[in-house]
Write a structure and sequence with these properties.
Blueprint lengths: L9 E6 L9 H9 L6 H13 L6 H18 L6 E5 L6 H10 L4 E6 L6 H16 L6 E4 L7 H17 L9 E7 L3 H5 L7 H21 L5 E6 L14 H10 L4 E5 L8 H18 L2 E4 L7 H18 L39
Parallel strand pairs: 1-2, 1-3, 3-4, 5-6, 5-7, 7-8
Helix pairs in contact: 3-11, 4-5, 6-8, 6-11, 9-10
Bound molecules: coproporphyrin III and fe (ii) ion.
The site of coproporphyrin III has 25 residues, from helix 1, helix 2, helix 5 and helix 10.
């Protein structure tokens, strides 16, 4: 059978994983922070965030919904391809997913990461964990990572509509004076310096998304909302510089300069992860309430049909490229489509080299 997905015989959804019950929280945090320089106080603090939500992260349920939506989208577009799911840090683990794929006779799969941007944490670390997962698995399927999709129209347009909807939810009398506050996960400055093939891709890619959303919101509303890129979820010791400003500090700064309203746009997250429901919906919303600022949070891409259809588009694009055909790589904004195969040293591991899949190194 020749399908649009050839040479692939499967799709693998690669994600972070999260705890599903209180007893999972400590072992999950140990998995995430093994070998990382994260202070104990930070772990206690993050453990309390999970406890506040019954010890259950929303991320796995969101991936289950995403998988169901991807399967339905592929099937209704005539693409008969099994879809698997594995996580770096919690059950179902990557090694189990790959074992199942091998047992099912899968030989070559495309992999979609639930991270839209280039950085060690969002790309190479996943590639390293994939390499580790196949290291003891003779005959494991070959894997190709689908390109970073921060600037794919399916991702950006979902976020544009979510921003417009959140603006519409602000009180009428403050809407025109609102600021857009684009939020992503903070990372160490040194990690940003080494993101992508030439460095700083993490911030550069986020800025491109922020600018494109700002332009499209202006087209729709006739108003250019002032914007900033800010960060949440800083960890690591205080002596190590991470990307700033923190979202709470930024809201305070806006308030002090007389801004009465803000829309939080979590462009760094593809669904409502713990960072979104805790750092934004709980903590940042409380900061805004204390300041007396109106504040709405835009929805994440989640299972927006455009975002789900993007997965099919990226799969078919890469499949065609692997077959040696010319491909039309859909992108919006100022940054061109990113590479299919990561170059040597792309998103360098600052702790030293570890084997990684899906790259030329
Ligand atoms: C760039 C980035 C993404 C986005 C890309 C992607 O999506 O992969 C991301 C996603 C996520 N991060 C998550 C959770 C955690 N991240 C931590 C720690 C860290 N994250 C970092 C960066 C990122 N992280 C970094 C540089 C660290 C320091 C330690 C290290 O260098 O690795 C810690 C340890 C405690 C703490 O320090 O906060 C936890 C618990 C969850 C699950 C959430 C849920 O349960 O819904 C998700 C999706
Ligand atoms: Fe994280």
């Amino acid at each position: 059978m020749v399908s649009g997905a050839a040479p692939y015989d499967a799709l693998l959804l690669v994600s972070f994983g999260g705890p599903e019950k209180p007893e999972d929280v400590v072992p999950f945090l140990r998995n995430v922070t093994a070998g990382k320089n994260i202070p104990d106080e930070r772990l206690v603090e993050v453990g309390a965030h999970y406890a506040q939500f019954g010890g259950r992260s929303p991320i796995n349920d969101q991936n289950r919904d995403f998988l169901a939506a991807i399967r339905e989208d592929l099937a209704s577009n005539g693409i008969d391809l099994p879809v698997y799911w594995g996580n770096r840090n919690w059950d179902p683990y990557l090694v189990d997913a790959l074992g199942k794929m091998k047992a099912d006779g899968i030989t070559r799969a495309a992999a979609l990461f639930t991270s839209a941007y280039s950085s060690y944490s969002g790309c190479r670390q996943y590639r390293e964990d994939l390499a580790e997962a196949v290291s003891d698995l003779e005959g494991a399927p070959r894997l190709d990572k689908l390109r970073a999709y921060f600037n794919h129209p399916g991702f950006v347009e979902s976020n544009v509509d979510a921003t417009l909807a959140a603006l519409a939810d602000l009180p009428d009398d403050v809407r025109r004076e609102a600021h857009l506050v684009f939020v992503t996960h903070s990372i160490p400055e040194a990690m940003n310096e080494r993101s992508g093939p030439v460095g700083r891709a993490y911030v550069h890619q986020h800025r491109a998304v922020m600018d494109e959303i700002g332009d499209r919101v202006r087209e729709e509303t006739g108003h250019r909302y002032p914007s900033a890129l800010v960060y949440c979820s800083r960890s690591g010791p205080p002596s190590v510089p991470w990307l700033e400003p923190d979202v709470n500090d930024h809201l305070t700064t806006l308030h002090n300069s007389g801004v009465p309203a803000a829309v939080l746009v979590p462009i760094g997250f593809v669904s409502d992860h713990m960072e979104v429901i805790y750092d934004l919906d709980t903590e940042a919303k409380a900061t805004a309430a204390e300041l007396g600022m109106a504040c709405e949070r835009a929805a994440t891409a989640g299972v927006d049909p455009r975002f789900v259809a993007m997965v099919r588009d990226l799969l078919l694009e890469r499949a065609a490229a692997e077959r040696g055909e010319d491909v039309d790589r859909k992108v919006v904004g100022a940054v061109p489509a990113t590479w299919d195969v990561c170059a040597p040293g792309c998103c360098a591991n600052l702790r030293g080299p570890r084997p990684a899949l899906c790259g030329s190194d």
